[in-house]
Fold each of these.
Amino acid sequence: MKLILLGPPGAGKGTQAKMLVERFAIPQIATGDILRGAVQAGTSLGLQAKGFMDAGALVPDEVVIGIVRERLQEGDCQGGFILDGFPRTVAQADALQATLAGLGRQLDRVVSLTVDAEALVQRLTGRRTCRGCGRGYHVTFDPPRSGESCDACGGELYQRDDDQEATIRRRLSVYAAQTEPLIAYYRQAGLLAELDGMQSIPVVQEQILSALQAG
Ligand code: AP5
């Protein structure tokens, strides 16, 4: 299964990708997670990316394209992969197409999750993530059973720097301007499944699994 999860910030791409990883035993390639890891580690990639991320802007295409091109050639991607947060521009989509063609591979499906703007703001302001294992929660929609710490590993939960309301709204307008055109791009390629991301987390997962079977 070679899949792209497309959708605005907070649509549930990461949440759904983690469930699909368990089901299909293929890796999630989340450019946001890779970039945050680089920022945390203080690498030159992280230093380059931080300003863009803090501002809610996109990191330059050539940087993320290089990351994904290398990642797709690793052994664990041979059985398939889930791209989460990439591509985000037409240039990235074209580069992905060229990379996969060079590897003799092609995408199976692009799932686009649609969610109302105000629900996205509510989801992102309430999002919490485990510092230990990366599991995501929501203070209202998916709270940890144990209250303050991660159910899976007991790790500390934190709020992302770019999940402040002003930055969230900037990220949403960047999505509308630069990423939304990919919906038409992949519809034209005959790969798109547009799903209602306003449903509950398990219902969205069911919709994705049906779309993958139909594809
Ligand atoms: P990135 O980390 O990719 O962030 P994003 O796309 O903005 O997406 P999010 O992670 O915010 O949302 P999500 O859809 O994964 O939602 P989640 O499942 O967590 O990118 C961050 C930054 O990195 C970018 O701004 C950019 O600077 C840079 N970057 C990354 N990739 C790049 C690229 N390709 N090119 C250039 N720059 C790039 O869910 C959110 C919350 O909602 C959670 O709390 C969850 O529990 C809850 N939730 C999920 N589903 C539901 C549901 N169905 N009902 C109720 N609540 C739900």
Note: The pocket of BIS(adenosine)-5'-pentaphosphate is lined by residues 7, 9-15, 31-32, 35, 52-53, 56-59, 64, 85-86, 88, 92, 123-124, 126-127, 136-138, 141-142, 162, 171, 200-201, 204 (CB under 6 Å).
Amino acid sequence: METESRQHAGSPPAGRPADGNRIDRIWSQLEKNVQRAGARRIIDLFADDGHPNGKSRFDDWSARSDDLLLDWSKTNIDAEARDLLFELAEACGVARARDRMFAGERVNNTDDRPALHTALRNLSGSPVLLDGGDVMPGVIDTRERMLAFSDAIRAGTLTGSGGQPFADVVHIGIGGSQLGPEMACLALRPYHDGPRVHFLSNVDGAHSVDILGLLDPATTLVIVASKSFSTPETMANAVTVRGWLADALGEDRVADHLVAISTADARVRAFGIRPDRVFGFADWVGGRLSMWGPIGLPLMLAIGGGRFVEFLDGGQAMDRHFRDAPPARNLPVILGLVGIWHGNLCGYSTRAIIPYDQRLNRFAAFVQQVDMESNGKSRRLDGTRVVRDTGPVVWGEPGTNAQHSVAQLLHQGTRVVPVEFLVARHGHERERARHHRMLVANCIAQSEALMAGRSIAVATGLMREAGYKGEALQMQAAHRVFEGDRPSLTLVHDRLDPRTLGRLVALYEHRVFVEAAIWGINCFDQWGVELGKELAANLESWVGTDRLPDGRDSSTLGLLRTFQHLKES
Ligand code: F6P
């Protein structure tokens, strides 16, 4: 994975920080360390455990923030590598970059914008300055309007056009305008005491048919959530759902059922949504970081304003921790550095997020966007090509389901995938205590099995006991060997409540930021999504026609021909 850095050896790229030589030295020391790591096993790093008066590796390689515990001991990072990683963060200016972000500097250089999503969860009463002005009065005003609106919907004082309270909410949005609130609504199911919330994201007509088929337009509130208010999928769904409302209730009643969340006031007005039903936010909030403000409205409707504020409080607690905790105890910094170790030093190109929590079912999908849209970049801030691999492929499934689908590859495949386990000390279901014990046992067992593995000697003994002999014994034993030495992290929290979810989301946001700062990339833009959008807009005018565009490859033309039957209806 360091192929490019080798190609570029001796020709430092433009746009490097001033202490580039120091950074090069640290990378090269880390590369030497990782070569030695090839000869040591993670389990060997626990050799000093039990030493009289000594701390265990778990004590040394775990960090806490309140009840949050991050165990990073099951990685092949030894004391030297750990120190070098912290030195790398310092030399790359992670703390400086963090302070610039919080201070509202234009850290998103290609859009010429700050990244001030942290202001949306600022409950401290302190100002957040941007170009000399405080952004907080606007943030608070919008939040107050959201709270009043949400309270009225939940209390049934704000009703549908026929006077019936809203029983269902359809939130139309995609990507950052959907993944966060959808993930959070699932995660915080025990706190739901408001209307049912449904998320419509895919332009596939099947999605709207399946959702609308369950609902009564008279008792349905529709939120159109789009920062740009021009995302084609969202706008197509918005038009369809608006039509569904109009057909059932009459055009003059539609506005009572519509809400918009957007930064694009003019487009929202043109769509016919009343100004008092629009919740705006500034362009300095990135889509994938926007669930803390109006994009979080469906969550607020589901769990109530008070609990939504607890969610914000959790996010802010993580902001404080990120700013104040020393690197050695700083969870986002550690998480980021472990990511650098696995991606850039060990060459592992993916990471799996396996929450042992059914309600974190969509957490990996959410982190996927936060991580891959932010750090899937090949250019440094100044436009020069990066010299190391950047963001990994992020994927995941909740445990224990993952154990029955992806775990085979994690344990015995030829590729090593570092795993990040998440688990709560307590479930919400007191009446399911045994289930929670099983869940926890499975989570801990997975990390132990990944690291410790099972030797050929043990496997042979087991197969001999099972009655195998000779070549059959060898063959059967070989299949039961677990090479082990596979790294994982475990993140433990007390209970998945709104505040904890806020801390987890902010932790992963900041982790992505730490890694970006080390690579010197802009984690706040997303130019890589544009080309596909442009081509789709162009191709739509050819799909379902007898004509074919000029100058396209035979695959694209052949596929278009395959869909010539799709006439417009
Ligand atoms: O996928 C690209 C993207 O711009 C994301 O960054 C964003 O979250 C999503 O589309 C939705 O955008 P919008 O909120 O403008 O509809």
Note: Residues 498-519 form the longest helix (22 residues).
